[in-house]
Amino acid sequence: xxxxxxxxxxxxxxxxxxxxxxxxxxxxxxxxxxxxxxxxxxxxxxxxxxxxxxxxxxxxxxxxxxxxxxxxxxxxxxxxxxxxxxxxxxxxxxxxxxxxxxxxxxxxxxxxxxxxxxxxxxxxxxxxxxxxxxxxxxxxxxxxxxxxxxxxxxxxxxxxxxxxxxxxxxxxxxxxxxxxxxxxxxxxxxxxxxxxx
Length: 197
Description:
The protein has ten helices and no strands. The chain is mainly alpha-helical. Helix 2 (20-42) runs antiparallel to helix 3 (45-61) and helix 6 crosses helix 8 (160-179). The longest helix has 23 residues, at 20-42. The radius of gyration is 17 Å and the shape is globular. 33% of the residues are buried.
């Protein structure tokens, strides 16, 4: 059986050569991570669904520019991150910052676990709302997708030192907001999640 990374590269190569089923396999492999990234960044279910669809549309259009030396996961997540950053910048210009109930797909959770997860996700969403779009992107890619500093830099078009600076600022801003009490005391454990990582 192929290593997932090798299989993904092969799918992208085949899709670039005109095989529609190969690109469908790429979408199948990355639809949940892409949707979740969009949800983390946009905090709105409908916007996240639209952004995920747009991500794959953009990936399909850019197949001829895909570099096989690059991780398919990082490449696709970078397209999603850039699109979400653009959307966030537009929303900030319009003064529009909706917070939706986070509903990220997961495997067969219990009703109690689902409730706890939704409360935690809503808390995290509120904390992330105060970050600049680029800071939200680097925090999400680092702590929810476990990308390295170098991979994040590649994904969002920053140097490694710029990524470290953004991460530091974002962590400090999150810690300051939490310390200032910008979260529910009854859900302190959930709100502490971003700071503890």
